[in-house]
């Protein structure tokens, strides 16, 4: 399975440069992470409406919305993230997910290999320990997409 | 030439006030010859978003660790890290960082393994500097490379290995003491990792038998500075019954939080024999047939 085109492009950008420039790319991405829309940002407690990714080193919350089948048969996925400004690495990881996967059909998101991030070549620049958050983020996104796209059992 | 020490009255109370500087002191000394400011963070990109003017970055994961063996860099590697940052053997190095200076105290501890003479912590770290609205910049300094001698690392004085801890167990309760600085849930064995942190692969939970549970954060004040000496004495001496002559081993999960406690006991309270067990729970909790205690009680070996 090939990666969604935006994600594939990101992977290519990362793989074309050396470790130092990869960090620079990640920093730029961290700055591009969009702010939360009001329906999430206004919540008194983010954990009311968003899921916390405990595997990240800093508090990261994510929300996944899947377009209803009636409106979009491809079930496009939309992603929302919140991470503190003083956690740029975590924000950078979230931004990779956002740039790479937001707006993609559910099936394509589910088909992203769990270890795709290895291809970003960040292990050397960032340390493997810090990369675990990225794997966890993808895992939780997929789980939510799977739940949203599974037909609810028929009521008896 | 070492810089003059900070004569702030809060610092003066500590056993070794020369190991700390206040934000005021640092702001007044930033451009002084013989001083290098080092930022050491949990987040590898945080420095690049803005840092204290002139400060250089040292990353624990990717720089102070050996890339292959689970160990620190050797004397040659350390000399290169320092030389590239214009740190010579007589430079005053002031460390600061995020998360209550965890990684800053960790870096200071590694510098101490190589016996770098003048190492200090910025009390309150990055958080306090930023909260006070002090200058930050994204300008990367371009230090002139200097010569740093190749010094052999001393792993016997302030560092403990698993074998040292095993032999240390016998005397726990006497003059040997163990301090577990993790959260209460990790200490009891209920959690295998820090709350909200990644599971780092310990197969057993609990603590080293006989270890006192003193979470590192108890030594930190709200503004990320160290608590005043009297408060620290209440915790470690009165409540835990430690004495400054005790032979103490501190540990956590990978040795970073316990560097904070190592700093507190050694430099703020004047303990003469404190070692940081950097293998910590990620080694102990995976080892075959080492004794483990679970629950809130210290237990015994």
Describe the protein:
The complex is a heterodimer of chains A (about 160) and B (about 300). By secondary structure, chain A is mainly α. Chain A has eight helices and three strands, in the order H-H-H-H-E-E-E-H-H-H-H. A three-stranded antiparallel sheet of chain A has the order 1-2-3. In chain A, helix 1 (about 5-15) crosses helix 5. The longest helix of chain A is centred in the C-terminal third of the chain and has 22 residues, at about 130-150. Chain A is globular. Chain B has a five-stranded parallel sheet with strand order 1-5-4-2-3. In chain B, strands 6-10-9-7-8 form a five-stranded parallel sheet. Chain B has helices at about 10, 25-30, 60-65, 75-85, 100-115, 125-130, 160-170, 185-190, 230-240, 255-270, 280-285; strands at about 20, 35-40, 55, 90-95, 120, 160, 175-180, 210-215, 245-250, 275. In chain B, about 30% of the residues lie in helices and about 10% in strands. In chain B, helix 5 packs across helix 10. Chain B starts with 8 loop residues before the first helix and ends in a 17-residue tail after the last helix. The interface of A and B includes residues 26, 59, 86, 88 and 92 of A.
Based on the model shown, name its key terms:
heterodimer; A: 156 residues; mainly alpha; 3 strands; 9% strand; globular; B: 301 residues; alpha/beta; five-stranded parallel beta sheet; 11 helices; 10 strands; 12% strand
**Count of DSSP E strands of chain A?**
3
User: Which residue ranges of chain A are poorly predicted, with pLDDT under 50 across at least 5 consecutive positions?
Assistant: none
Share in β-strands of chain A: 5-15%
Distance between the termini of chain A: 38 Å
Give a quick summary of the entry:
Chain A is mostly helical.
Q: What is the topological layout?
A:
The complex is a heterodimer of chains A (156) and B (301).
Chain A lengths: L4 H12 L2 H13 L6 H4 L4 H4 L1 E2 L8 E6 L10 E6 L5 H14 L4 H5 L12 H4 L1 H22 L7
Antiparallel strand pairs in A: 1-2, 2-3
Chain B lengths: L8 H4 L7 E2 L1 H7 L5 E5 L16 E2 L2 H5 L10 H10 L7 E5 L5 H12 L5 E4 L2 H7 L27 E2 L1 H7 L7 E5 L3 H5 L23 E2 L15 H11 L7 E5 L5 H12 L4 E5 L2 H5 L17
Parallel strand pairs in B: 1-5, 2-3, 2-4, 4-5, 6-10, 7-8, 7-9, 9-10
């Amino acid at each position: 399975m090939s990666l969604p085109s935006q994600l594939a492009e990101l992977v290519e950008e990362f793989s074309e440069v050396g470790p130092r420039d990869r960090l620079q790319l990640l920093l730029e991405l961290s700055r591009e992470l969009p702010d939360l829309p009001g329906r999430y940002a206004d919540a008194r407690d983010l954990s009311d409406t968003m899921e916390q990714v405990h595997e990240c080193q800093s508090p990261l919350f994510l929300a996944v919305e899947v377009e209803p089948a009636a409106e979009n048969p491809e079930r496009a996925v939309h992603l929302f993230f919140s991470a503190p400004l003083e956690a740029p690495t975590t924000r950078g990881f979230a931004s990779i997910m956002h740039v790479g996967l937001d707006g993609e059909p559910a099936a394509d998101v589910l088909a992203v290999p769990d270890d795709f991030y290895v291809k970003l070549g960040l292990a050397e620049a960032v340390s493997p320990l810090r990369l675990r958050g990225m794997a966890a983020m993808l895992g939780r996104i997929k789980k939510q997409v799977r739940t949203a796209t599974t037909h609810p059992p028929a009521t008896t | 030439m070492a810089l003059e020490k900070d004569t702030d009255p809060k610092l003066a109370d500590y056993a070794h006030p020369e190991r700390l500087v206040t934000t005021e002191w640092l702001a007044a000394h930033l451009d002084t010859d013989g001083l290098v400011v080092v930022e050491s963070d949990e987040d590898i990109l945080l420095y690049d978003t803005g840092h204290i003017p002139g400060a250089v970055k040292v990353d624990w994961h990717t720089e102070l660790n050996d890339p292959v063996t689970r160990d620190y860099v050797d004397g040659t590697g350390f000399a290169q890290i320092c030389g590239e940052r214009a740190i010579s053997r007589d430079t005053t190095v002031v460390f600061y960082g995020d998360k209550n200076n965890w990684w800053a105290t960790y870096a200071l501890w590694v510098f101490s393994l190589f016996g770098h003479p003048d190492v200090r912590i910025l009390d309150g770290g990055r958080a306090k500097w930023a909260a006070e609205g002090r200058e930050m910049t994204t300008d990367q300094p371009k230090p002139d490379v200097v010569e740093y001698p190749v010094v052999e690392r001393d792993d016997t004085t302030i560092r403990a290995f698993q074998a040292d801890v095993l032999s240390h167990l016998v005397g726990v309760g006497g003059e040997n003491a163990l301090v577990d600085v993790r959260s209460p849930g990790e200490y009891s064995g209920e959690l295998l990792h820090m709350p909200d942190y990644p599971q780092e692969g310990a197969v057993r939970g609990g603590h080293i038998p006989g270890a006192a549970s003193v979470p590192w954060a108890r030594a930190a004040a709200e503004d990320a500075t160290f608590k005043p000496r009297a408060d620290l004495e209440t915790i470690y001496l009165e409540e835990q019954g430690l004495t400054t002559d005790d032979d103490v081993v501190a540990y956590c999960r990978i040795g970073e939080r316990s560097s904070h406690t190592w700093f507190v006991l050694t430099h703020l309270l004047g303990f003469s024999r404190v070692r940081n067990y950097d293998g910590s729970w990620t080694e102990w909790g995976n080892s075959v047939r080492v004794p483990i205690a679970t629950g809130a009680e210290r237990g015994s070996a």
